Amino acid sequence: MAERRWGTAALVAMGLVILLLMVALLLRLSLVYETFAVFVEKLSSGLGIDENLATAIAALTVVPFIYCVGVAFSFRAGRRMLGMFGVAAYVAAYSLAAWFVSQDVYFGPDGALKYYAATPEGLYFSDEPGVDPVYGVRLRPVTREVVAASRTGAKPAALPSLDRVEHFFDPSTGEPAVWYAKYADGDVKLFSAPGFDPKTGLPLLPITPEIIERQRRRLAERSRSEAEDRSTAAAENLAKARARTLQQMVRDIAVDGSRRTVGFALSLSDAKAVEGQAPLVCSRAVRKGAPSGVDPRHDLFAPEFIANGYFDRVYAGEGELLRDMGATDTTDAIVLGSGTAACRRTDFNDVVSCDVGISAKRFDTEGRLVAQASVNAVGPGFSERDAIAAACTRIVADSDFVQLLKGGQ
Predict the structure, then answer these.
(1) Does this model's pTM top 0.90?
(2) What does the H/E/C string look like for the chain?
(3) Which terminus of the chain has fewer Cβ atoms in its 10 Å neighbourhood, N or C?
(4) pLDDT of 339-366, one tens digit each?
(5) 170-222 confidence digits (pLDDT tens)
(6) What is the mean pLDDT of the segment spanning 215-244?
(7) What number of other Cβ atoms are within 10 A of residue 86's Cβ?
(8) How far apart are CA 29 and CA 380, in angstroms?
(9) Beta bridge partners of 283
(10) Is pLDDT of 29 > 70?
């Protein structure tokens, strides 16, 4: 009986030993697999090494590393110490190698592997997100532009206007591809890389959708304002040019303060007589025969007043032109006459007879039409000039025309 119990206990103990050996083997295999997988992952993703090459490197390094781990748990103190040194040497060698290789590795299959911050001392890089430990600037994932600026040492270049920038963000990562500086007046200047604004020395900021939209609105408002300014300037220039043109229609005249000065202009159609001087001959006759206290000044208007069509425009109703050109500045009223003059030679001692008809309008100093009259007269003379002068002398003596010249006097 006792021997049977000892036999059973031996079998149980042997089973437990075998089970423990199997668990230890499984643990070792699991450790080997996990260590191998971690090495491959770190080498391929963390360092950007090709996965096949990473597998080969892991195969050459993991097995000795696992062996050293096993030796570190040896029951013999000497071997245990040797194993610990081996593990420490492998970890140190791997870390140093990873650090050295990763210096120029910024991207992996899943995107950026490093983070950056633009500080007063330049670009700061880190393997982990967070903030720059010195200046507290938030770290952002690196972009191709940042890496290029870092490797070439290129300074941020000013970009053209916002509307001419093709990409504000990296199409593959969504990270900013443009940086900006904002000034006190709200204006924004764009740059091609991170760094510092050469104007203020402040760090450039990565572009954001809000800044883009705000700047677009600002540029649109500026464009509208500039268009309005151009339109206003054009209108002002046009007004000045118009004023200069109108002022050229009027001459400076000396007025007689003892009489009412009336600006007078006459346009006669079919006036071939006196070599086209019929209006001037008639105007002089009107001034010479004007009623007492009235001084009709036909010399107030330049020849261009009639030649350039301003006479017709005023006569047709644009009386404000008289005010705009300054014709009423030195006069008490303006009288414009439009009519005809036709001359014929009679059979009586070579006497010439001229028919003159004038329809005249009186305008006040504001350019408003206040009165009008139509008068016809025939004048005889031994020449066309004398006949026209005689007809116009009769017209100026007509009561309706006298009242037109005198107005409310």
Answers:
(1) no
(2) CHHHHHHHHHHHHHHHHHHHHHHHHHHHHHHHHHHHHHHHHHHHHHCCCCHHHHHHHHHHHHHHHHHHHHHHCCCCHHHHHHHHHHHHHHHHHHHHHHHHHHHHCCEECCEECCEEEEECCEEEEECCCCECCCCCCECEECCHHHHHHHHHCCCCCECCCHHHCCCCECCCCCCECCEEEECCCCCEEEECCCCECCCCCCECEECCHHHHHHHHHHHHHHHHHHHHHHHHHHHHHHHHHHHHHHHCCECCCCCCCCCEEEEEEEEEECCCHHHHCHHHHHHHHHHHCCCCCEEEEHHHECCHHHHCCHHHHHHHCCCHHHHHCCCCCCCCEEEEEEEEEEEEECCCCCCEEEEEEEEEEEECCCCCEEEEEEEEEEEEECCHHHHHHHHHHHHHHCHHHHHHHHCCC
(3) N
(4) 998 888 887 778 999 999 999 999 999 9
(5) 887 788 888 888 888 888 888 888 777 777 767 778 888 898 888 888 888 88
(6) 89
(7) 17
(8) 141
(9) none
(10) no
Average pLDDT, the chain: 80
**CA quadruple 65, 69, 75, 80: dihedral positive or negative?**
positive
Instruction: Kindly list the structural domains of the chain, giving each domain's residue range(s) and its CATH number in brackets, ordered by start.
Output: 20-104 (no CATH), 115-216 (no CATH), 260-406 (3.40.50)
Q: Which two tokens stand for residue 383?
A: 């020449």
Q: What was the pLDDT predicted at 274?
A: 56
Please give the distance of CA 49 from its chain centroid, rounded to a whole number: 48
Out of 205-219, 231-245, 272-286, least confident range = 272-286
pLDDT of residue 358: 94
Which tops the pLDDT comparison, 284 or 110?
284
Distance in angstroms (rounded) separating the CA atoms of residues 404 and 291: 11
C-alpha distances out from residue 397 to 282, 401, 409, Å: 13, 7, 16
CA 180 → CA 195, 215, 283, 322, 375, distances in Å?
A: 10, 11, 75, 58, 80
CA distance 141 to 117: 9
Encoded tokens for 87: 């593990």
Q: For residue 139, what pLDDT band results from cuts at 50, 70 and 90? A: confident
